[in-house]
């Protein structure tokens, strides 16, 4: 394919992706049709099928796009050489800011609402976001154990525990429609406590 042909294809892809993002967030997965997307973006149904394989492939690409900011926060753990307390605190604040956005919450609400009809979408989301993130955090904790900064632990369980402490009840409250700003502020306020209890425990020494 020529450079100009590649450029045209990329522009078509970007237009379809932008239209799909707007429509999925507004109407949900099931009620958004390929015709809706093509009608907003221009182009043709055959172009959409050629690039994305269908509506499911397009939704998964929107999902990946929305999750990239969350993925970027987890990837900061790969290069951090600060003390675990500092790294985990900075990570937690970035993680909360990335997951409690209107777009991210709406995407998860769509997945929850339609998981019974389209379980493959929910399974894909778990691979793209939570499972990938937990693996990166577990790898960071394992490196801290290997370097002597943290005591021996099961890094996978520890990663899940820490994320649960950071999110607490904010996730399900957000999914049920609670205003995001106060939820996010309260979650940020809990970060220092979550990091302290995770690293040092609650029992008296």
UniProtKB/TrEMBL annotation:
It comes from the Bacteria. Residues 33-52 bind DNA. Keywords: DNA-binding. SUPFAM superfamilies: Homeodomain-like, Tetracyclin repressor-like, C-terminal domain. Gene3D superfamilies: Homeodomain-like (1.10.10.60), Tetracycline Repressor, domain 2 (1.10.357.10). InterPro entries: Homeodomain-like_sf, HTH-type_TetR-like_transc_reg, HTH_TetR, Tet_transcr_reg_TetR-rel_C_sf, TetR_C_Proteobacteria. Residues 10-70 form the HTH tetR-type domain. Pfam families: TetR_C_7 (PF14246), TetR_N (PF00440). GO terms for molecular function: DNA-binding transcription factor activity; transcription cis-regulatory region binding. PANTHER family: HTH-TYPE TRANSCRIPTIONAL DUAL REGULATOR CECR (PTHR30055:SF146), HTH-TYPE TRANSCRIPTIONAL REGULATOR RUTR (PTHR30055). This is Putative transcriptional regulator, TetR family. It comes from uncultured Alphaproteobacteria bacterium.
